[in-house]
Write a structure and sequence with these properties.
Length: 355
């Protein structure tokens, strides 16, 4: 397993800590007011113990991260709902203040807890700009990364900042690496990987990499429809040991896989000892177009295998239908989880390796 520097070993007493968290959560509009709120808080709850640990050490904490894919500053992608969630989670009732921290807009939650506004409002974040990284580093004395879901990105708040501050991994990130390393290094076989959802440009290369890791690769959702032929061509090109590939058929409206395909997936899964699932089979916001995902989810819960699930949409859906606790481990990462299991060295983890 990777040897990462741990937050428990960091000297943070009385210091200012830059905490990179997973803040990319679904936001919903209230039916009774204009107030927006967090729809699923799984990713926020994941790094919250690290925040509590830092506060017990009398540290001042500046939390940072991103929400969505804004093109420049866009209030639709403001992290204010996340700031309100943090305030409520800490049982605070004070007014939320907006303040300036060395040129960065931030929400003051308490005198020692701040949340920076969406880092993707700055193009320099995704560019891993050196000057921007220095500016982020100037806000703190210690850096802690507890954002596993973003650690496959070589962005300023994930990689660049670590050049200028002592850098450590948070408790949740360590847990992710520990659990996923078990599957990567000594999985019980047969091993099945189920990939769905959209984000085709990031998932398609991972399907190919999974051939050398898994015994079965099952593909559903939007990625199945848009690249069905390409997936099969890729499969034929894979040299050496490769997984069996099964691509789902979609219903006529293309918004869900057929029930027959979902049942076919479950027939394969019944023979597997380890299952990794990332990405829904249909539009999980709509019950009518998520029948395939529901059949798969309910079928998986009846399996006695070791089951890992990851990806924001999948986690949110399983939470909604009260099945998340039936899985062995719920990873906060979607693409990051798949890349880790594909043997890719995640930039955010490399930056935290013990020297």
């Amino acid at each position: 397993m990777m040897k990462l520097r741990k937050v428990q070993d960091a000297d943070v007493k009385g210091k200012t800590v830059f905490l990179r968290g997973d803040l990319d959560v679904p936001i919903q509009q209230s039916a009774t007011s204009n107030q927006e709120s967090v729809l699923d808080s799984s990713r926020l709850e994941a790094w919250f113990p690290t925040l509590e640990h830092l506060l017990k050490q009398n540290a001042k904490v500046i939390i940072a991260g991103h929400l969505g894919r804004p093109e420049g500053k866009d209030e639709k992608f403001s992290l204010k709902p996340v700031a309100l969630w943090i305030r409520k989670a800490r049982e605070l009732h004070n007014e939320l203040e907006q303040v300036d921290l060395n040129g960065f807009q931030a929400f003051k939650i308490t005198g020692n807890v701040f949340l920076l506004e969406n880092l993707r409002f700055y193009k320099e974040e995704e560019e891993n700009n050196e000057e921007f990284s220095k500016n982020l580093a100037s806000l703190a004395e210690v850096y802690v990364n507890d954002a596993f879901a973003s650690s496959h990105r070589a962005h300023a708040s994930i990689v660049g900042i670590t050049k200028y501050l002592p850098a450590f991994s948070g408790s949740r990130l360590l847990k992710e690496v520990e659990e996923l390393s078990k599957v990567l290094e000594e999985p019980k076989r047969p091993l099945c990987v189920i990939i769905g959802g959209a984000k085709i440009e990031t998932k398609l290369p991972l399907v190919e990499k999974m051939h050398h890791f898994a015994d079965y690769v099952l593909v559903g959702g939007e990625i199945a429809e848009n690249d069905k032929v390409l997936l099969k061509v890729q499969h034929e090109k894979v040299q050496g040991k490769k997984a069996a590939l099964l691509v789902a058929d979609l219903k006529e409206n293309l918004k869900d896989i057929t029930e027959k395909s979902a049942e076919n997936f479950l027939q394969v899964v019944q023979n597997c000892q380890t299952i990794v699932w990332n990405g829904p089979m249909g539009l999980v916001e709509d019950d009518e177009n998520s029948v395939g995902t529901r059949i798969l989810a309910e079928g998986l819960t009846n399996s006695g295998s070791y089951k890992i699930v990851g990806g924001g949409d999948t986690i949110a859906y399983l939470t909604k239908i009260n099945l998340l606790d039936k899985f062995s481990f719920a990873s906060t990462g979607g693409g990051a989880m798949l890349e880790f299991l594909a043997g890719v060295k995640l930039p955010g983890l490399v930056a935290l390796l013990e020297k």
